[in-house]
Write a structure and sequence with these properties.
434 Repressor (Amino-terminal Domain); mainly alpha
Length: about 100
């Protein structure tokens, strides 16, 4: 996510690091998946690229018994589906611009 946001903003790792106050080796580690940023660091990196990080609560499930049944059904379906290896990596959702 960090790499995609940085590239969309046409920033180098050095420039992103300088503007965010996070070291370039740390930015590189986030992009390579060797480290994961905390919420504040991720929000700061995205803010520098012109994006914002938004967390939203999911609505509560009204009936726990129904939720358990739905989960059981879903897991049963998942077991029945043959899984093929993906040729392309999964993509993150698009970012929200300010």
């Amino acid at each position: 996510m960090v790499r995609e946001a940085r590239r969309r903003a046409s920033l180098s790792q050095d420039e992103l690091a300088r503007r965010s106050g996070i070291s370039r080796p740390t930015v590189n580690a986030y992009e390579k998946g060797r480290r994961e940023p905390g919420f504040e660091a991720l929000a700061r990196l995205l803010r520098v690229t012109g994006h914002r990080l938004v967390l939203a609560d999911a609505p509560p499930y009204p009936d726990e018994q129904a939720a358990a049944r739905d989960l059981e059904d879903l897991l049963g379906l998942a077991d029945a589906i043959r899984v093929a290896r993906r040729a392309q990596p999964l993509r993150f959702p698009s970012f929200v611009r300010r």
